[in-house]
Design brief:
Immunoglobulin-like, 6-stranded mixed sheet, Nuclear Transport Factor 2, Chain: A, single chain, 3 domains
């Protein structure tokens, strides 16, 4: 009997120890969860005044991506952040929604301020991944659209506005299209809803929590991977007052969302989206994805991230927002590819420490057309980078001829090497010179947007530089 009592006491003691250890572990995990939330917010909402204090929260092998820049390692990350906050001293980011599940933190945000003196206001979403049971981040990706910056830059604004107009003409049923050659939007016949998948149900909050989560994950994945073959059958998973947003279109109500999806998949019948990472916390589903296919015959491949919000105890989504970069489509469109290429070069010159910048040190896209600059000294031949660059409608090219003068030629060529315009051809006295090119050829006809080379030649001298014309 005494032995039995002793054994029972020993078991009780072991049980108490196990319960205490489990409680301590739960307390520790709860603390780690709270600290990761705080760190995630700090990394997203960092500003010029405190960005250096967040560096210890990144691992030495941190991997970072945004629509333009790819960073590998803490040294590159430090240089990237230093350049970004030097260019954007007043940039303020404010988190809206956030989730943290299994060490993956995601947050939607708004950002306002200036980038290199250009007003900037945008929405985005970010994902961060924490290592093991630590408070250090080894992966970060920001999703937003470059057009939110481009739309404020003279010379690039028309490209951004033009693409958004073209896109809305194709897919937005509420948009009064101003284009004569807009892609046609054929009437979309909406078939009766197929509810075979079980659109919505009344859920028992005790019995069905696990089932509800499972259903929401399945439905969230289906709504992100929606395609031409199944989009009509998925309509019942949206509420009647569904609110949808992407970088260009804002949709309110199922009666507007249905024709929007119909137009989208009429223009993009082979568009395929594949979910990569996903999470579901408190009825908020987030997922990263890749998308590929054609939009109105234009090849398209991009990465993005989406957020869906489900109504309480329901499998119906009342809010949906897609984040992606318009530049991934524009980069494949003749006439727009040069615009997005020019912006991405400009952006990387400003913030990417690994990028060999082809632009002059100022690299200002927003320089006023026709602005003046100081020509180079005239002690030897010299050819300066044109300004502004990229440009529209004109740019200034400065060069120098050494004392005594010389016969020189300043000519412009396209990417194929074809002569476009001769600006100077003949004897020039010594000194500094500047000439203006207004984007026309030798016949006075305007040339298309694109990359051009200008070359200064003289006896025993030749130098060439590149410039970009954006219209």
């Amino acid at each position: 009997m005494r032995k039995a009592i002793g054994s029972g006491a020993l078991l009780a003691g072991l049980l108490l120890m196990l319960l205490g250890a489990a409680d301590a572990q739960a307390t520790g995990l709860g603390r780690l969860h709270r600290e990761r939330l705080e760190i995630g917010r700090a990394l997203i909402e960092a500003q010029s005044s405190n960005w250096q204090s967040i560096l210890p929260y990144y691992t030495a092998d941190i991997e970072y991506h945004d629509p333009v820049v790819d960073i590998h390692g803490i040294d590159m990350m430090t240089g990237f952040l230093a350049r970004m906050y030097t260019s954007s001293g007043d940039l303020v980011t404010t988190i809206e929604d956030e989730t943290l599940l299994n060490g993956v933190y995601s947050a939607t945000w708004t950002m306002t301020g200036q980038f290199n003196g250009v007003p900037y206001s945008a929405r985005g979403i970010s994902i961060l991944k924490f290592r093991g049971l630590s408070k250090r981040v080894y992966y970060q990706r920001d999703y937003y659209s470059e057009n939110d910056i481009m739309i404020n830059i003279p010379g690039l604004d028309q490209a951004a506005i033009g693409f958004r107009t073209y896109y809305r003409c194709a897919v937005d049923p509420t948009f009064e299209c101003p284009l004569d050659d807009a892609p046609g939007a054929a009437p979309v016949a909406i078939k009766p809803a197929d509810t075979s998948l079980g659109a919505d149900k009344s859920w028992n909050p005790i019995r069905s929590l696990i089932q509800l989560r499972r259903e929401r994950l399945r439905i969230g994945r289906a709504l992100i991977e929606i395609n031409n073959a199944d989009w009509q059958s998925l309509l019942p998973y949206y509420t009647a007052d569904i609110e949808y947003h992407d970088p260009i279109v804002d949709v309110y109500g199922i009666d507007t969302l249905a024709p929007f999806l119909g137009r989208l998949f009429a223009s993009s019948g082979d568009l395929i989206t594949t979910v990569e990472d996903e999470s579901l916390v408190d009825g908020v589903y987030t997922a990263t994805w890749t998308m590929s296919g054609l939009f109105n015959g234009i090849p398209y491949s991009a990465k993005g991230m989406s957020i869906l919000k489900f109504r309480d105890w329901s499998t119906q989504a009342y809010y949906s927002r897609d984040y992606y970069t318009e530049g991934d489509i524009m980069a494949t469109v003749p006439g727009l590819d040069q615009a997005i290429g020019g912006f991405r070069t400009y952006y990387r010159c400003a913030v990417d420490p690994a990028f060999e910048c082809p632009l002059p040190p100022t690299g200002a896209l927003a320089a006023a057309p026709g602005g003046t600059r100081t020509p180079p000294a005239a002690s030897t031949f010299a050819l300066e980078q044109n300004a502004p660059n990229p440009f529209n409608p004109s740019t200034q090219i400065s060069f120098a001829v050494p004392d005594g003068g010389a016969n020189i030629a300043l000519r412009i060529y396209d990417l194929t090497g074809r002569l476009v315009r001769t600006l100077v051809d003949g004897p020039e006295p010594g000194g500094a010179r500047s000439v203006t090119w207004t984007g026309d050829d030798d016949q006075g006809l305007p040339v298309p947007s694109g990359t051009y080379f200008y070359r200064l030649t003289a006896p025993q001298y030749s130098e060439q530089r590149k410039m970009v014309l954006l219209k």
